[in-house]
Model the fold of this input.
Amino acid sequence: MSTIQLTMVTTKRMDADSHTRALRVKALATEIGFDAVGITGCELGEAFHRYADQMAAGYGADMAWLHEDEERRGLRSDVRRLHPQARSVVVVAANYGSDTPGYLEQPPTSEQGWIARYAQGKDYHVHVRKMLVRLARAFQADPALGYPSHAHRVFVDTGPVLEKALAQSAGLGWIGKNTLLLHRTLGSYVFLGVVLTPLELAVDPPGLDRCGNCRRCLDVCPTDAFVAPYVLDARRCIATWTIESDEPTAVIDPEALGQHVFGCDLCQEVCPWNTKAPATTHAALAPRPENLRPELESLMGLDQDAFKRRFPKSAVRRTDGQRMDAVARLITERNRS
Ligand code: SF4
Ligand code: SF4
Done:
């Protein structure tokens, strides 16, 4: 960070009004139901370059990145390029952790599939976005804050915004060796949301890495998807195989797939920071019983309408009936052979 940037950050931190506003913003986020909140500035700096290097090395599953020109890619480096009015970034987290047994604790039978925890409840895009919109409206309604709600822009896993890097910068936690954001008490089962705001707010110190000598996530990965600590080759990740790939049967290694029909939680399940994390208090994000170890057979042969009925308002709809059918059949045939 340059001397000039440092001076600006320090000035921001020492400004009494920006402190008062930051406290108010955090109180509103908590009232609305977010489990954690932090504030950072607009520019990502080194974190953006790390991301860009990994994408350039071909490790990314970020398909959008591959098709973007330099200008659009650069939007991720500084949120003001996306929203020129922005002066601060408010990063929030919603806990979706659950005390239902995980894949390793209670492995699915050979007839059952596993849906990643983040997709077991209601679609987080819908739930967290609603909360973010309420937060932006609360900023408008508060006399101490006072910008119209449209002056704020909200993102939840949408748009060219690096939520994890912003969250670390905002002090919510650190990006672990499994490449996920880890919060000290909530662990990694959190959805992140971002508000780009014209409010001048005091920023928080960045989160410190607490992985230490641990490497459980690296060792448990059945596909050896981690090229190194903190570096995931998403092309080898079960989540990419089962959710993103156009031809799952061409890319999936059936022996490494386990019973995963949609995503994989293994590098989170083994993380010690998730062991004592509390279960979600968001009813919408709690697992739906039908998404816990569903019978593989029930996931096969669903046409698009049947698939939508089976997964209403669900992040599972990131895939479609055809892909899920292909993955479920692959597992079934492997188990029979
Ligand atoms: S989600 Fe599963 S496959 Fe992907 S990196 Fe983690 S353990 Fe490996
Ligand atoms: S399992 Fe260990 S190394 Fe991996 S993210 Fe968690 S604490 Fe870090």
Remarks:
- Residues 140 and 283 are 27 Å apart (CA to CA).
- Strands lie at 36-40, 88-95, 114-115, 153-155, 174-175, 181-182, 190-197, 226-228, 231-232, 260-262.
- The pocket of iron/sulfur cluster (ligand 2) is lined by residues 176-178, 182, 211, 214-217, 270-273 (CB under 6 Å).
